[in-house]
């Protein structure tokens, strides 16, 4: 017994049984390493000075084999396809398409997806006042659609706050965040194709002069100019301007 007590006293003196220093303790509220960042809550229409920039994401966005890095080179591959409008009614808006280099997205395929959405009878042409035609790079265009990394989205949209999460319209640029293009949003679940239709109609709607609106009534299809990426406010997901009632 005397020998055990002597050994214990020696260990205490040398520090072998001492507790960790407080600075080495990790708070229980600390996020797990590699955890996804919190979803942005700011509107793209807020002034840049109203809130600090969001921290960079910890991992690239990935779905269906497509990887979206946080940032890209800020240079673009241009779509070379042209598709005329299938209607003669309304003012014609010509648009071209650019995809940031390094994204695993085919510019021509992206351009055709945008054209298919905008030429759908349920899209803005349903008003009878506007129509869209896809033009190839180098041709005269009224609007320029960009599909770019979150970091480049922030740069093209500044001073609007997109925080690497949402998209915007800036002048004659319709800027679509590739992270959203690939992943979609919670409001649409796994239906990324329908979310892309909403994304295109919403941001081109801004180019036509439409502003954000709220949900008019719980259970009603969401107006396309509601910020559905951030939530539905009680409405149901709806990608089309012409759909107003369930």
Question: Which keywords apply here?
Answer:
single chain, about 250 residues, alpha/beta, six-stranded mixed sheet, 5 helices, DUF3152 domain-containing protein, DUF3152, signal, MetalloPept_cat_dom_sf
Give a topology summary.
Layout: H1 2-14, E1 61-63, E2 66-68, E3 76-78, E4 91-100, H2 107-118, E5 130-134, E6 143-148, H3 150-157, E7 168-170, E8 173-177, H4 178-183, H5 192-207
Parallel strand pairs: 4-5, 4-6, 6-8
Antiparallel strand pairs: 1-2, 3-4, 7-8
Task: Write up this protein.
Residues 1-18 form the signal peptide. Residues 65-233 form the DUF3152 domain. Residues 35-52 have a biased composition (Low complexity). The structure is a single chain. This protein is of the alpha/beta class. The chain has a domain at 57-184. 22% of the residues lie in helices and 15% in strands. The protein has five helices and eight strands, in the order αββββαββαββαα. The protein has helices at residues 2-14, 107-118, 150-157, 178-183, 192-207; strands at residues 61-63, 66-68, 76-78, 91-100, 130-134, 143-148, 168-170, 173-177. A hairpin with a 2-residue loop joins strand 7 and strand 8.
